[in-house]
Amino acid sequence: MTAQYQVHGDVAVITMNNPPVNGLGLATRQGLADGLAKANADAAVKSIIITGGGKGFSGGADINEFGTDKTMQEPNLPSVISVLENSPKPVVAAIYGVAMGGGLELALGCHYRVAAPGTSVALPEVKLGLLPGAGGTQRLPRLLGVEAALNMIVSGEPVKSEMLAMLPGQKLFDKIAASPESLAEEAIAFARSVADVRPLPLVRNLPCKHPQGDAYFQFARNMVKGMSKNYPAPAKCVDAVEAATKNKFDDGVAVEREIFINLMWTPESRALRHIFLGERAASKIPDVPSSTPVRDIKSIAVIGAGTMGGGIAMNFLNAGIPVKMLEMKQEALDRGIATIRKNYESQVAKKKLKQDKYEQRMALLSTTLSYDELGDADMVIEAVFEEIGVKEAVFKELDRVMKPGAILASNTSTLDVDKIAAFTKRPEDVVGLHFFSPANIMKLLEVVRGAKTAKDVMATVMGIAKKIRKTAVVSGVCDGFIGNRMIEQYGRQGGFLLDEGCTPAQVDKAIEKFGFAMGPFRMGDLAGNDIGWAIRKRRYTEQPDMKYSKTADLLCEKGRFGQKTGAGWYDYVPGKRDAIPNAEVVAMIEEHRKSLGITPRKISDEEIVQRLVFSLVNEAAHILEEGIASKASDIDMVYLMGYGFPIYRGGPMNYADEVGLFNVVQAMNRFAKNPLDDAKFWQPAPLLAKLAAEGKTFN
Ligand code: T1G
Fold this sequence. Notes:
Strand content: 5-15%
Bound molecules: (2S,3S)-3-hydroxy-2-methylbutanoyl-COA
Low-confidence stretches: none
CATH topology of the largest domain: 2-enoyl-CoA Hydratase, Chain A, domain 1
Number of helices: 28
Radius of gyration: 29 Å
Helix content: 40-55%
CATH class of the largest domain: Alpha Beta
Strand order of the largest sheet: 12-11-10-13-14-15-16-17
CATH architecture of the largest domain: Alpha-Beta Complex
CATH superfamily of the largest domain: 2-enoyl-CoA Hydratase, Chain A, domain 1
Mean pLDDT: 95
Structural class: alpha/beta
Shape: globular
Number of strands: 19
């Protein structure tokens, strides 16, 4: 039953019941329409309330329905809203918790609105590449005023009900209840008080004007233009709200509807909706049911107070979880604490953190030089030097001191988690938690599941990841897990492009124009070119047939490790991040090319982008085939949250789907013919070849 119907004396109450957020799917819309018909047919009923059960009023249209014919299937949302608005009896929306998107639009179609304090009110459609498509751009300006409404629609940000109720002249809320608990009773009393009011107040009949008219909307367009590069929706929001001030209501609604449907089919909106659902899907592990009991994590231990250890610790301090940090020497501990303090103090200086919150967080942090003082922590995360011998020593100590049931996590970014688990007598309690630097900022967390990692450990760390506001993606055990395994192929292509005729700046500019935050060479300079150098040296012995350009090695042999040495592929001015092309590096690349007898050729930006991005896609297809990642959207989340892949393209797998897998394979076949490239690598992964042949997609 997706909408319950009850009568309290002469007031009918229709309660939406579609957990988790009363998404306005077809069944819920039908339940509302049926309830309204029933209430209007019942002579004993004088007024009607619609409200939501569970978490809140409604989180909006059902995003799962988008792109299917269900969104438009009658009764679609505009139809339900028009039934509300044309009800002969007064309809009161009793809202609490969340009233978002189509959920708020539903309330705007009612004659009256009573809200509980603390209700999150928003029209967040713009965050999905859309705009409110059920009258929100026409009704909200009539109730809140054009500017306040446009700000909410363009930002998509939630505002608390009591804040909106304070806006001068607002007509959004007819009453703010004393508390969420008293909302139901107060709404019924309010509904009774308006039972005989006629004519019923219709939002559509309210005037909608802005005193500065065109000048204001021109100003609004200029403001929006700056903040919405690559996204068409924000500018369209301005168009729709302007239409509300220039047209009769129904004509304005028609303008809004047309814009909404056009935006629904834009690749940007498809990408943003894919990310919304993908982020949430990542927390679901196919063979670990959501009912799996979790271990209670009340305190954390962190081994290593370096950059990673400090950043990791901050995540838990920020979530109010006590942390005990261990180092080998007091000065290392002091340095680590000082760095954490510096990070917080810069946030306080920027007014991003209140002083008292900073002090509360620091009060949760303790330190020790002895493993024996860690035993009672519920989870320990080691962030020590990336060398298997060091990990072995640490995990043997942890196995000795940690209480039974404690989770033993490694922040390793490349080492074998199964090998690390085997250093202990409790491999079922061992898991990889690969944070990305800076660990207190980057949203991505790769959760590396060992062969023996227990299911409740997986359920526990996925829950903790949500608590520390990370997007956790489960990876199986392989060299580089998901992200770094793919980025290695991306880096190889960057090297080949240099051998064939590009400069580092040309490659970086091409992929940054595509939308990456940073190209491979600027990224190498940021992360440290010596990291890739160490991995290649390992590869040269372990996989001698894996082809690499030598340019990166030549660069490292000159000590040009990047920003940390003041010079890498580019030069850097101390304290500045600008990457300044260096003529010697370009000459070095040309020299190397000549030594190989390669005649440089002009390479188009399109080829650069395709080789870099499709190398990610092909390696990702292997990762999916091997079960290292369980779904393509997980791989998209890794690249969007951890590697600067452009949000509006939805991740490498989503982008490949947009291009068409057939076209991706065609391009790869062309690259395989290039003798300077790696033909073996460009053989399409069987999964990719199969999907392409069948005209299917990854997601
Ligand atoms: N549709 C479908 N599922 C939704 C949903 C929605 N609108 N909102 C949330 N969910 C699912 C979500 O996938 C997750 O599923 C669960 O609910 C809990 O979500 C015509 C067209 C409401 C503030 O953009 O901002 O209306 O993982 O983890 O942190 O103009 O969800 O449990 O299987 O985020 O408490 C506009 C999107 C739609 C609001 C709750 N509405 N949702 O946050 O829980 S477009 C939105 C949110 C529209 C009309 C247009 C948040 C929340 P699962 P959660 P939360």
